[in-house]
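Tutorial handout. Part one gives the primary structure; part two gives the three-dimensional structure as tokens.
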Amino acid sequence: MIEIHSKLPAQGVTIFSIMTAMAQRLNALNLSQGFPDFPAPPDLLQALSQATLDGYNQYAAGDGLLSLREQVTQLFLNRDQLQLDPVTEITITPGATIGLFSAIQAIVHAGDEVIIFDPSYESYAPSIQLVGAKPIHIALNAPDFSVDWNQVKSAITDKTRMVIVNTPHNPTGAIWSKQDWLNLIELIQDKNIVVLSDEVYEHLIYDGEKHYSALSFPELRERSFVVGSFGKTFHVTGWKTGYCVAAPELMKVFRQIYQFANFCGVTPVQMALANYMQQHPEHISGLSSFYQQKRDLFNSGIADSKFSLIPSKGTFFQNVDYSNIRPDLNDVEMCKFLAEEHKIVAIPVSVFYKQAPENLRLIRFCFAKKEETLVQACKILNQV
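Part two.
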């Protein structure tokens, strides 16, 4: 009998799979997993079809189609006045998660420590553990989910190799201010620490706020990876296409890992995105208002319910507090209660923590949905 020893023995099925399966079993309204229920732009779909018909069906360059990398350089130039080299500083990846994974594998070694802020995206800690390093979890301050910088200062040691930042933040919708970045710079500028900045919701910022990328700070330019997602930006999460940006020396070691994790992204998808981005720059410029309308529709729709909330500043997620309804239930139990008794599915925020606060009574809804879906959701939640 062969012996099998898991490298991630505590890792079970993700909460997203569990809640989606529950939604299907109960025929419940699914606002748990982060994907739109409305179609992608017609011109983008046409561009994909045309790319396949035009013969772009074989391997792309391992670093990604140059035309798409050039569109990424244009994004950073327009927003941050930052000039990137598409050849040496940008790699197109099949989704953001493998970009995050490859950056961690490239820089972090056994015995190192990596600071992550809880609640945090579920792939961070396992990717760190797989190299024999230790994730150092720092809980953000509820209810605004701000960073306790004194705690960060105390957590940094000679073993700290990386800090992972996520802004706009999943699952809370919080965003990092310029001062947050300056605080981080002050703590790490004289240390051998790399920043991995997960910016997949970079274009989904509300109420006139501004997105600050790690690369927009000269002090972080040579020590930061930035990971982004075309899937989130163009309503095509199933296309699994993202990117990683870093200075040439960092990108060199990133590509050394990435080439063996996944040789290249999907060719016609990259061609379609490049062509669409070139022809429709208004898509990205209109994203904030597009999603803010959906956020506001959802939030105003449950304003008279027993739920309470602080409006999300970014992403397409909204957390709601159910303390006035069933404080006796933890958030996992509350999500099951809503699914079974009211036929609506959310995500418990506690699953994004290593150790969640005992009094946490927050659940996450995705508002990247059609208007009729959001209206139906509000109708249900007002009856809870």
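Part three, for discussion. The chain has a mean pLDDT of 96. The longest helix spans residues 66-80.
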